[in-house]
Amino acid sequence: MTAGSGSYATAAGAGLAMKLAGLQVMRIKRVLAELGPDTRETARRFLAGMIDPQDRERVLRLIARADSFSGDVNGNGNGQSGASQNGAPQDKMS
């Protein structure tokens, strides 16, 4: 079993991984919402940079899709994603 492969020894392990990921996502969304517009874009680019290059485009599309269902990370609930047409994260100025 390799890290990042998505394989877990047990269903409980998979459940724990999802729970921990969910908690981390909530923390990141909270911090991004608290940042000012000038620093939010830098933080989003940093977080996108943490994703393996071969997975980045796919992950950013998933994030944009999730944002469209639940409102974006800015908390304005407008259903617009936080990614540009090419999948790169971008900040929205209200």
Helix and strand content put the structural class at mainly alpha
Sheet of most strands: none
- Distance N to C terminus: 45 Å
Strand and helix order: HHH
Tell me, what's the shape? globular
Explain this structure.
- There is one protein chain.
- With 94 residues, this protein is mainly alpha-helical.
- It has a domain at 11-69.
- The chain contains three helices and no strands.
- It has helices at residues 11-34, 37-49, 53-70.
- The longest helix has 24 residues, at 11-34.
- The termini are far apart.
- Residues 73-94 have low confidence and may be disordered.
Topology:
Layout lengths: L10 H24 L2 H13 L3 H18 L24
Kindly summarize this structure in a few lines:
By secondary structure, the protein is mainly alpha-helical.
Key phrases:
single chain; 59% helix
